[in-house]
Amino acid sequence: MEYNSQREKLILPEFGRNIQSMVDYTITIKDKAERTRASRTIIQIMAQNTPSLNKDQEDFYHMLWDHLHVIAKFKLEVDSPYEKPKPEDLVREKKKLQYPNKKIRYKHYGKNVEYFIKKARETKDPDMKDKFIEALANMMKKAYLSWNRDSVNDELIKDHLAEMSEGELIITDKHKISSTTEILGTAGQQRQKNKFQQKKFHKNNNKHSNQSNNNRNFKGNNFKKKNF
Prior knowledge:
Elements lengths: L15 H13 L3 H17 L11 H12 L15 H4 L19 H13 L3 H22 L6 H11 L15 H48 L1
Helix pairs in contact: 1-2, 2-3, 5-6, 6-7
């Protein structure tokens, strides 16, 4: 038995090995007109085997012909309705994704907190800045508690916000910070709610399943009685 792992690697696996074999055979055909007819047949098969693609799309068949040449390693010479693509036009060098190298001062707060601190510092309106400070304080406390669920001192949040904003954003008595119990309580209530909904869902599913089984058993018993 020959395994796929022992065969030649497929160039475009989504079209399968049969298409690859047909293309390989078509390349060996000496008559150009015959090669063209075989290629058109392969294109129709490729179109049928890709139902997920929109066949009404303007460049649908253009794309298939490009794929055909790729599978043929650009060795196929036929009368195509489209210009034969060049390897360098289809195979582009992969660009390395740029990853932000900026270090986060306190990783448990994340980049969003740093972003909002920057926006708060840019805000000129005093009332809006106060709202920013209060929102940031609660956001930072919630983030801190997700990292350390025991407790957090509001003075620590105050110090961190002042440090991260270079002394521009100061938490005062007028800013309301939620208590640790309130933050953890809200999160706990949400988890309990999710568990209750999941339990209710499974219970309803089991109920429907039992009803279906009872109905089948009832019909089966009636059928046996009638035959008897």
